[in-house]
Specification:
The chain is 31% helix and 22% strand. By secondary structure, it is an alpha+beta fold. The strands form two sheets. A five-stranded antiparallel beta sheet has the order 5-4-8-7-6. A three-stranded antiparallel beta sheet has the order 1-2-3, with no helix packed on it.
Length: 245
């Protein structure tokens, strides 16, 4: 059995009469091996209702507050949400399925690789995540992803691991489709997509080379190819076109 520690000191409601005696319970955090395994918070509202206005002669009452649990919030969130384990989708919400063009149930149990344009990009980004997340606690980038129909699109991705010492072990990820303001206008290679993703974040050739583990000169060569494909005369113009401006 995991060792359980209760966290007390929760703020009480301004009008305690609006709640049943057990409305505000303790927040119980069960820990095992130093990691949070379960969080239980059980609010319960008083079944009886009262007059919506003091002294209201009509005796009208306010409707009971609807139940709103964390699972419901997860599934109706306006951004794609994923709970992952070793880069496998343990659970995801409807919005993730909508963004990528899948029934969200079919993604459960799948590798994140199905959302990437190529296996190489899946592997490379997977290698970049641990050192950043282990030092910063969170990983975030904007990258080109692939929908079920093969369409490529820009996506903002953010993730947080439950254990920074093993970032891929288990985590929570958000996916936001930003294709409405930024579109993939031309066909790009896997490496060009990676460099484009770094360029739009304002990184220099030296910084990009360090992140992708290639030389700054190689970055410059790919930047020149991107400029040619996008018909950009300068590096600044290229970034603007990548951003959809």
């Amino acid at each position: 059995m995991p060792r359980t520690r209760a966290l007390r000191g929760l703020r009480q409601p301004a009008n305690a009469a609006d709640y049943a005696p057990h409305a505000i319970s303790e927040l119980t955090v069960a820990r095992k091996w130093g990691t949070i395994r379960e969080i239980t918070y059980l609010p319960a509202y008083r079944a009886a209702t009262r007059s919506s206005h003091a002294g209201d002669p009509t005796g009208s009452v306010s409707p009971p507050m609807p139940t709103f649990d964390y699972q419901t919030a997860f599934h109706i969130a306006p951004v794609g949400l994923v709970i992952s384990r070793q880069r496998i989708i343990e659970d995801c919400n409807r919005q993730l399925g909508k963004i990528f063009g899948y029934a969200h149930e079919t993604l459960i149990g799948q590798s994140f690789q199905v959302l990437y344009p190529s296996p190489k990009e899946f592997e490379r980004i997977g290698e970049r995540i641990p050192p950043i997340m282990s030092t910063q606690g969170v990983y975030s980038d904007e990258r080109i992803m692939r929908r079920a129909n093969g369409e490529l699109f820009w996506c903002h991705v953010t993730g947080r691991s439950l254990d920074v010492k093993d970032p891929h072990a288990a985590g929570l990820w958000t996916f936001e489709d930003i294709s409405a303001t930024r579109r993939v206008a031309v066909a790009l290679t896997a490496r060009e997509r990676e460099i484009a993703a770094q360029l739009v974040q304002g990184k220099t050739s030296k910084q990009i080379g360090k992140i992708l583990e290639i030389s700054p000169r190689t970055v410059d060569i790919y930047r020149a190819r991107l400029m040619q494909k996008y018909g950009a005369g300068t590096a600044t113009e290229l970034v603007q076109r990548l951003l959809g401006n």
